[in-house]
Design goal:
single chain; alpha/beta; 5-stranded parallel β-sheet; 8 helices; 38% helix; 11% strand; globular
Length: 205
């Protein structure tokens, strides 16, 4: 395979909640045991010639307001060339009974603030949808959060990753109550990383 959107010498930073974190500060340091590690391993396997600095700044339990508070230190201070953001499941979880337009609008405003803060050094952005896993059909309020990310991404022309598309296979066949809607960090370990890799890899196969 040849060709990759991320050139050698780049810094690629991931930030988000527990799905990004995945014990990256304990036994699975420094990249965690979830999709971040799987993605970096895929890149290393297919493009061993690349020297990329990988950073995982996910923190379990974070909502988007937490990212706003630590954005300067954990993102802006590093001026990454590439930035992947996966945030929103905890924001949505407090709103599971139905969509609260104020909560969704506040989420969009905070997300826009995060994007504005990195514009001075213009990193390439990968925006990943938050996602739920459930046996019941929606609509879940997560749909509104996802739509806001899509609109922000289209406005700025970012690359979009979509982990929600690979989520359901991880719990296929499990007997869950309809009201049992979860986004476990264990699901991150089942993501194969290709949903992030796909939009970035222009390799010939």
């Amino acid at each position: 395979m040849t060709g990759f959107a991320v050139p050698t010498g780049s810094t690629f930073l991931f930030i988000g909640d527990s799905i990004t974190d995945c014990d990256r500060m304990t036994y699975a340091a420094p990249l965690g045991s979830g999709y971040v590690r799987r993605f970096t391993e895929l890149v290393t396997f297919h493009h061993p010639e690349l020297d990329i600095r990988w950073l995982n700044h996910g923190v379990g339990g974070d909502v988007i307001g937490d990212l706003c508070e630590r954005w300067q230190e954990d993102v802006v201070g590093h001026e990454p060339d590439w930035l992947a953001i996966q945030i929103g499941i905890n924001d949505c979880h407090g709103n599971i009974e139905g969509s609260d337009e104020w909560a969704v609008s506040a989420y969009e405003d905070d997300y826009q603030y995060l994007l504005e803060q990195v514009r001075p050094f213009s990193p390439n952005l990968v925006l990943l949808d938050p996602f739920y896993v459930a046996t019941a059909d929606g609509p879940w309020p997560i749909d509104d959060f996802q739509r806001r990310i899509r609109l922000l991404g289209l406005d700025a022309g970012e690359q979009l990753g979509d982990p929600q598309l690979v989520g359901p296979h991880a719990v296929q066949g499990r007997d869950r109550a309809v009201q049992d809607v979860v986004a476990p960090r264990e699901l991150s370990r089942s993501l194969d990383g290709s949903d992030v890799l796909g939009p970035l890899d222009h390799a010939d196969q």
